[in-house]
Design a protein that fits this description.
6 helices, rod-shaped
Length: 136
């Protein structure tokens, strides 16, 4: 089996392995071990995939935070509550959570925790400013 083919198409390599070795019942213990290693290797998340997932999560967070800030400050200054904006922010929050879950699934849980702490600090600052504006 060509090593470069494994790097380019790992899932195709699995199909080729199964086709070359026939039915699973006829495999030896060595074939099973080799197939298991191939499965683990093929389904590992690479650095490019983790970078893409991180970028998706950051884009969603960067899009949602200004909207959240606008909604909080508008409600604090005018006492006006925008239902449509709040429901839109809720949908964005669901997308952010899904992106974070994909990052955790890819093995980036420490990164998700760090970004979560930064996001919490930012939202806490917005809440402090909003509560100050409500009192004024």
């Amino acid at each position: 089996m060509n090593v470069f083919a494994l790097f380019n198409t790992p899932k195709r390599a699995i199909r080729r392995f199964r086709k070359a070795h026939g039915a699973i019942e006829t495999w030896s213990a060595e074939d099973h071990a080799r197939f298991q290693n191939l499965l683990i290797w093929a389904h590992q998340t690479g650095p490019v995939t983790r970078l893409r997932l991180r970028a998706q999560a950051l884009v969603l967070i960067a899009y949602a935070l200004p909207l959240y800030t606008l909604a909080e400050l508008t409600q604090a200054v005018r006492g006006q509550y925008w239902d449509r904006l709040e429901s839109y922010i809720d949908r964005l929050d669901d997308q952010v959570q899904a992106a974070e879950e994909r990052c955790v699934h890819a093995g980036d849980e420490p990164w998700v925790v760090r970004v979560g702490h930064v996001t919490d600090r930012m939202t806490d600052a917005v809440c402090r400013v909003a509560s100050h504006l409500e009192r004024v």
